[in-house]
Design a protein that fits this description.
Radius of gyration: 26 Å
Largest sheet: 5 strands, antiparallel
Oligomer: single chain
Shape: globular
Strand order of the largest sheet: 20-21-22-23-24
Strand content: 35-45%
Number of helices: 4
Helix content: under 10%
Structural class: mainly beta
Distance between the termini: 99 Å
Number of strands: 32
Length: 492
């Protein structure tokens, strides 16, 4: 009887041990790899590490990788190192990589050379921004280092200060729950630097507008039943009563290239969403806010200027005029006129091809200072820079190198309308897209010497069949020092 009791107790003890062991397994002991910029010592995000047997890892926004492969523990492993616009030293056989002794709990730091003039800082949107740093127990700057709003990916940002906060809006937004997210503009806010916000060198604490499930919710549904609604031309302006308003252009789309209708929308602060103000003619996509607006006052008055990327449309900075297409003027090459066709970059290229215009007489055809070839600039933004005392352009060159829409260029001009003569590549990608870049002048530092810009990193249009995990279809921030001597050929 006593022996039977003992056997029962032994069985119970073993069962408890098994259950307890299953409930609280040991945490894996990670081997930490950090990739740092050899010029600054700062961690570099989006660096790919690959083992000989093709295990692939990508550094998080602090440049860290939490490496935990049981079969490789205790072994010396060769790891290839590569990243867009960065270079790792090659050995005698031409392999760019390093041999690492994988010791659980250990750490290795790899220094990578930056070829880009601009410095890659961090990912702004999506899931797992500081995933590896969190796994490793390292400190991170974000309130939500693993991402927020249940966002998996976001397209093309519009952002402006409004009522003491930065208001951020994006296009199509991917969710983690299902392959389809929402297509009616996502939104978030963040505090301004020095007023509760992070130093832009460290990151952006986004607070999303979310639905009852915690997922980023539509901000510009505008009553449409189907088709995406995208916004651009985001600006702030006082209305007739003197109240600050947040206004944008909206485009109701059938597909990427087909618009169903478009117009002007204003933000309803009580509902925290955009509402229609006016609808514009479908065949006129010029006489309305678009791109990233510039407000500028000169002898001709106080105007908003619009362009993609070069400013060729303007309107008086008055609330009522924004909704009136007849109030808009376009650049004709010799001045601003209302009833005329704009002389934009595309029109200049046509005139050059026909022999009616010389390259040297153009306003919007900058030449690559390294190759001497004209650049067809895609989307971007233009801002006044106090350090350079010039207007500066950050834009993507279409077909300008190893990527179709991934080569980011810098240019300067004495006036908004140019002439934009020379451009210098500051960011490159290999068979990957980085489109719709935009500078954030509210993040300027050192009197405008240091600027910040972001863009959408995406496999789309790249021809690359493999999307980068976590990073793809998300926003990445860069920093550029305008005193860098490599920029001088593009500076006037």
């Amino acid at each position: 009887m006593i022996a039977t009791h003992r056997n029962i107790l032994l069985v119970i003890s073993l069962a408890c041990a098994l259950v307890c062991g299953a409930a609280s397994p040991e945490k894996p002991a990670f081997f930490q790899i950090q990739v740092v910029d050899d010029q600054t010592g700062r961690g570099v995000p989006l660096v790919e590490l690959e083992t000989v047997n093709h295990l692939q890892f990508f550094s998080d926004s602090a440049g860290r990788i939490a490496f935990a492969e049981p079969g490789l523990a205790g072994q010396t492993v060769f790891i290839r190192v590569r990243s867009h616009g960065y270079e790792f030293p090659k050995d005698g056989f031409g392999f760019a990589g390093a041999r690492l002794k994988i010791e659980p709990g250990g750490k290795s730091v790899l220094k990578i050379k930056r070829l880009n003039i601009a410095e890659r800082l961090y990912r702004i949107t999506g899931e797992g921004i500081y995933r590896d740093s969190v796994l490793l127990g390292e400190k991170t700057p974000l309130a939500e280092p693993l991402g927020s709003g249940q966002v998996a990916g976001q397209d093309s940002v519009q952002v402006t200060p409004y009522r003491g906060k930065l208001h951020w809006f994006w296009g199509d937004t991917n969710r983690l729950k299902y392959p389809l997210g929402h297509f009616w503009t996502a939104g978030a806010t963040s505090e301004l630097p020095g007023k509760g916000g992070l130093d832009p060198a460290d990151g952006v604490n986004l607070r999303y507008f979310v639905d009852s499930d915690g997922f980023s919710r539509p901000m510009a549904r505008l009553g449409v039943k189907s088709g995406p609604v995208w916004i651009d031309g985001l600006l702030t302006i006082a209305d007739e009563s003197g109240r600050e308003r947040l206004v944008c252009h909206y485009a109701h789309m059938k597909s990427l290239g087909e618009m169903l209708d478009h117009g002007l929308a204003a933000y309803n602060d009580d509902k925290a969403e955009f509402e229609k103000l006016a609808e514009f003619k479908l065949d006129d996509k010029t006489r309305c806010p678009h791109g990233h607006p510039i407000r500028h006052r000169d002898a001709s008055g106080d105007h908003f200027y619009f362009g993609q990327p070069f400013p060729v449309t303007r309107v008086k900075a008055e609330f009522k005029r924004l909704a009136d297409p007849s109030s808009y003027e376009v650049w004709t090459g010799s001045g601003w006129k209302r009833d005329a066709k704009p002389l934009d970059a595309a029109e200049e290229r046509k005139l050059i091809k026909s022999g009616k215009l010389k390259q040297s007489d153009t306003h919007f055809q900058p030449v690559d200072v390294d190759t001497g070839k004209p650049l067809a600039m895609h989307y971007g933004s233009v801002c006044w820079n106090e350090f350079r005392k010039r207007w500066i352009l950050i834009a993507v060159a279409q077909g300008g190198g190893p990527s179709f829409l991934g080569e980011v260029c810098y240019a300067e001009a004495p006036a908004l309308t140019g002439p934009w003569l020379r451009a210098k590549k500051v960011v490159t990608h290999t068979k990957y897209t980085f489109y719709n870049p935009v500078q954030h002048p509210f993040f300027d530092q050192a009197g405008g010497r240091v600027i910040y810009f972001e863009g959408t990193y995406a496999e789309t249009f790249s021809g690359n069949p493999v999307a980068t995990p976590r990073y793809d279809y998300n926003q990445i921030m860069y920093r550029l020092d305008l005193a860098d001597p490599r920029l001088q050929p593009a500076q006037r």
